[in-house]
Amino acid sequence: MRAIRYHDEARLELVHEVGYYTAVSARLGERFDKAIQSAAKRAAEFPDLGSPYFHGTRRVFPKKFKFSVVYMTHEQEVFILAIAPFSRKPGYWRLRKNDG
Length: 100
Hints:
Blueprint: E1 3-6, H1 8-24, H2 26-45, E2 51-52, E3 58-60, E4 67-73, E5 77-85
């Protein structure tokens, strides 16, 4: 399995969304966090499994949440660019590729 590395802004998105769901319900926040971590782990174990996406990236989908985990595959790691809600403009994270 490849290492998982988050772009700083993707990490902030994760923290923000976990906080949002936790404010609704502690269990919901925990479920969201686990769903994202599980999706990231799937990407790290099977990097080609994710659906091809914009700008040479791939994405996997956490179960039961309208988000995608957008990532790039490097030789030794999966670099997560965004925890992207379906409602946000696609590709808003594209400049983050330059940081990875």
